[in-house]
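Bug report (template v2)

What were you trying to do?
Predict the complex of my protein with S-adenosylmethionine.

What happened?
Run completed; filing so the output is reviewed.

Input:
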Amino acid sequence: MAMKRDIRGELSGILPDDLVGLVPRSFDVIGSKGRAVAVIEVPSELEPYGQAIGEALMRVQRNVQGVLSKGTERMGEFRVRDMRLLAGDPDTEVLHKESGCVFKVDPGRAYFSPRESTERENVSSKVAPGERVLVMFSGIGPFAICIAKRQPTAYCVAVELNPDAHAYCLENIRLNKVGDRVSAVLGDVREVCPKLGERFDRVLMPLPKGAYEFLDTAIPMVKSGGVLHFYHWAPRDDPFSDGECILISAAEEFGRSVEILDRVRVSQYSPSAWKIRIDARIG
Ligand SMILES: C[S@@+](CC[C@H](N)C(=O)[O-])C[C@H]1O[C@@H](n2cnc3c(N)ncnc32)[C@H](O)[C@@H]1O
């Protein structure tokens, strides 16, 4: 049986021996079997070897045609990294396939994380037939499209601020043939949502960095008895208290009750912080 080649093995003899161990073994691959881009975090000690690392990665993972380095943390309102091309094709727009959906994206222009596919599946599985769903901070559309594919009688409205992400969302709606059950709106949720003229059975807030600042927009969008999916960054040792407190006091401002339905650790954000989701029925 052929052994899967390892990026560190590929770089031994190319990088100084004492640096090979610093090369990350894991990286994100976005795309398909035919054409993908990889996004890798290169420690500062390895920066002079960025091209060699990118080329080695393409040798071990043959479908990767371009390698981007996470130049910075996700920044600003659009939550996009300042990426640097280490090697390969500078055209880093790809078609990513997951759970029967296809997403066109350039990870340098819009937020997309292939690691969140299970989360998208988990939330989509909660949507009942006929529900009307608001996806705030919708990015290139993965939540809305995943819901529309899984629950064809549901209807989703997706609101996004980044014009590049919104353009990809429109394209992804077309590629997935869900134009009859997803509509995408470009703009700030604070301005767009109050003008939508309806309340929703379910509202998603997939912006862990700062969703709490938009609860005053989100809560009035939930029908009485509807469900809010609130994302938050939280300390590892007490992941839910802070988010629950914030959510309950925001709802009180509108005279709305909160019944906590579920508390989920979605993923580890850093050694001390988790990305969490609180599902709540808003009365
Ligand atoms: C963490 S990303 C999530 C994107 C998408 N939901 C996904 O899971 O791939 C958050 C998104 O919220 C968008 N955003 C930030 N502030 C916004 C606002 N005030 N109104 C609408 N969208 C906003 C960003 O541009 C970004 O695409």
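What did the reviewer find?
The longest helix spans residues 163-175. The radius of gyration is 20 Å.
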